[in-house]
Write a structure and sequence with these properties.
Elements lengths: L3 E7 L2 E7 L1 H13 L4 H10 L7 H15 L5
Antiparallel strand pairs: 1-2
Helix pairs in contact: 1-2, 1-3
């Protein structure tokens, strides 16, 4: 499956994030369930990741944990 690239603003800086569509589905659903903007959820994940880890990897791990927990609101 090809990666889907989206541009978002994190802490006032424009960046892009490329994920597989399945991961975007989980992240989008989580943002909807939490009634927050996608950029706000990605910023939250960014704020809690190890600086050594790539943002895209951190988002994938976050999405996997959300699915395993049975709730996209993780």
């Amino acid at each position: 499956m090809p990666l889907v690239k989206r541009s978002i603003s994190l802490h006032g800086h424009r960046t892009s994030l490329a994920l597989e569509p399945e991961f975007w589905d989980v992240v989008d659903e989580a943002a909807r369930a939490r009634k927050m903007a996608l950029a706000a959820l990605i910023a939250e994940i960014d704020d809690n990741r190890d600086p050594e880890d790539a943002l895209s990897s951190s988002v994938r791990v976050w999405a996997l944990k959300a699915v395993l927990a049975g709730s996209p609101e993780t």
